[in-house]
Amino acid sequence: QVQLVESGGGLVQTGDSLRLSCAASGRTFSSSYMGWFRQTPGKEREFVAAISRSGGNTVYADSVKGRFTISRDNAKNTVYLQMNSLKPEDTAVYYCALGSAVGVYISSNANTYEYWGQGTQVTVSS
Prior knowledge:
Elements: E1 3-7, E2 10-13, E3 18-25, E4 33-39, E5 46-51, E6 58-60, E7 68-73, E8 78-83, E9 92-99, E10 115-116, E11 120-125
Parallel strand pairs: 2-11
Antiparallel strand pairs: 1-3, 3-8, 4-5, 4-9, 5-6, 7-8, 9-10, 9-11
């Protein structure tokens, strides 16, 4: 059984930075691609960023490109999301996800992820 535990959320002001962490346990982390998604009430879960198994490839939503950076430390079984220049529209619950589908190297599609964390709230005040 895979467990994903996010941390690092909080209340910040516009322009501030936060770093989210997601610690994984229960399977070989390095053989899985990882992603971050976010969701606000009444809206569907939205892709934010993803990283390949090795960490050599990343992909971002246009709304966060240039401001957010996803990274991973396979020795610590942890994936990070560095969020800079935060805006009020970044306010959401952020979820990390783990996937290992055969033939998938990196993915922005939530349906390709098998395991999800419980989420961490990020609130950006104006």
